[in-house]
Amino acid sequence: MSPVLELRGVRAGYDDIAVLHGIDLAVEPGQVVALLGPNGAGKTTTLRIISGVHTITSGQLLFCDRDMTGVSPRELARAGVCLIPEGRGVFPNLSVRDNLSMMTFTGRSRDEIEEVAFTRFPILAERASQIAGTLSGGEQQMLALSRGLATEPAVLLLDELSMGLAPLIVGQLYEEVAEIARQGVAVVLVEQFANAVLEFADHAAVLVRGRIAKQGHPDDGLRTELATLYLGSST
Ligand code: ATP
Fold this sequence. Notes:
binds adenosine-5'-triphosphate; six-stranded mixed beta sheet; four-stranded antiparallel beta sheet; globular; alpha/beta
């Protein structure tokens, strides 16, 4: 299968400081790709590049074999890229229902959006009138995912979905993410701690100081290498 998303030799930085030093990554439809690595490795910057909110210094961003380097975030969103940023992409002062209703700008009706959200996450139906900021962390991530799904993404980018959540909840969320991928969505997820995602990922890339130190199927070899490479006891 040909990749829906490809980074070729991507370099980027902030002001004069280079942060990414030539990233090569290809993601196929239906694949879950985990981008792992310690603090400051450049994981979030990579997601920001894929969603067009950060510019590439050199290299290429391809979407369905089309060169989309330098294209605006709006155009990438229209092409099917959806970023769910770290810290949950919800409006905390609005209700669950209003958070979902805002997504009608996509052209889908409120009923359709709610049906998709409430079928995947029935707890959200029970919480429909609740103010999003008072939901549990896991429920807020479910709402953020539902808002993302309303855009019918081809590529879903998830930044530290597990942040601050109990391992059991993280496992349940990633099971849903894997199910979303099985329906054909390419998923790129960033995590600092590998254990949360390795059993759900089809492919893992380990980013260390702006370079991919290792990538491949998350088998035992990669897990062992991960442990020795940089994570130490934090795996
Ligand atoms: P973390 O999990 O800590 O967010 P990360 O792997 O996602 O780590 P990035 O957030 O991509 O890493 O940051 C990579 C490097 O770029 C870091 O050294 C960081 O200090 C720097 N950086 C990130 N954002 C900015 C910014 N807005 N201005 C200047 N430097 C930045």
